């Protein structure tokens, strides 16, 4: 997939994802060339665990990514 070179992408996946195929998402991530990117897989959570069990971790990741790459 072709993206603008100044594009920043972070993907956060549930280690025990039950609704989607993480392999497909990881393949898409791998196809992003020449951009700032980060892939995080949070182990031992399900799809909706990102909104409960791992909520604080996901928020921290998002804020750090925003501050590093997207904040003016």
Care to describe what's here?
The chain has 72 residues and is α+β, with helices and mostly antiparallel strands. It has one domain. 36% of the residues lie in helices and 19% in strands. It contains two helices and two strands, in the order E-H-E-H. A two-stranded parallel sheet has the order 1-2. It is flat. The model has no long low-confidence stretch (mean pLDDT 92).
List keywords for this structure.
single chain, 72 residues, alpha+beta, two-stranded parallel ribbon, 2 helices, 2 strands
Largest sheet: 2 strands, parallel
In the predicted model, the low-confidence regions spanning at least 5 consecutive residues are: none
Strand content: 15-25%
Overall number of strands: 2
Q: Helix fraction?
A: 25-40%
Number of helices: 2
Tell me the strand order in the biggest sheet. Answer: 1-2
- Which overall shape is indicated by the principal axes computed on the Cα atoms? flat
| Mean pLDDT across residues | 92
Radius of gyration based on Cα positions: 13 Å
Number of domains: 1
- SSE pattern, N- to C-terminal: EHEH
Q: Which structural class fits the helix and strand makeup?
A: alpha+beta
Distance between the termini: 26 Å
Short account of what is shown:
With 72 residues, the protein is of the alpha+beta class. It contains two helices and two strands; from the N terminus they run βαβα.
Q: Mind sketching the topology for me?
A:
Blueprint: E1 8-14, H1 22-31, E2 36-42, H2 55-70
Parallel strand pairs: 1-2
């Amino acid at each position: 997939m072709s993206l603008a070179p100044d594009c920043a992408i972070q993907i956060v996946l549930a280690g025990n994802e039950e609704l989607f195929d993480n392999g497909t998402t990881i393949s898409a991530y791998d196809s992003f060339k020449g951009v700032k990117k980060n892939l995080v897989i949070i182990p031992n959570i399900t799809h909706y665990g990102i909104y409960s069990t791992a909520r604080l971790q996901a928020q921290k990741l998002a804020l750090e990514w925003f501050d590093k790459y997207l904040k003016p």
